[in-house]
């Protein structure tokens, strides 16, 4: 997956997230679960993009960047 593909995925995820957040009357439980999953996936995608860009900046192969597990990416906030 290259940077453009990651950015495309981010765009699609953001669009879906926006759509859910704009719903009036609250979200159903499955919609809240989907929103939470979208937030995690977005964090993973942004992390992967940052890894790739850092590797490119320092002359390394960006294709060696890996999608980190959700638990690892989400722990960055703490």
Briefly characterize the structure.
With 78 residues, the chain is mainly α. It has helices at 3-21, 29-57, 70-74.
Can you tag this structure with a few keywords?
3 helices; single chain; 78 residues; mainly alpha; DUF2630 family protein
Helix content: 55-70%
H-E order: HHH
The proportion of strand residues reads under 5%
Distance between the termini: 28 Å
What's the count of strands? 0
Shape: elongated
- Biggest beta-sheet profile: none
Classification by helices and strands: mainly alpha
- Total helices: the number is 3
Cα gyration radius (Å): 15 Å
Q: Would you tell me the overall average pLDDT?
A: 94
The stretches of 5 or more residues where confidence is low (pLDDT under 50) are none
Organism: Streptomyces cinereoruber
InterPro entries: Uncharacterised_Rv0898c
Pfam family, one: DUF2630
Protein name: DUF2630 family protein
Describe what you observe in this structure.
The chain has 78 residues and is mostly helical. Helix content is 68%, strand content 0%. The two termini are 28 Å apart. Residues 56-78 are annotated as: Disordered.
SSE map:
Layout: H1 3-21, H2 29-57, H3 70-74
Helix pairs in contact: 1-2
Pfam families: DUF2630
Region (Disordered): 56-78
Protein name: DUF2630 family protein
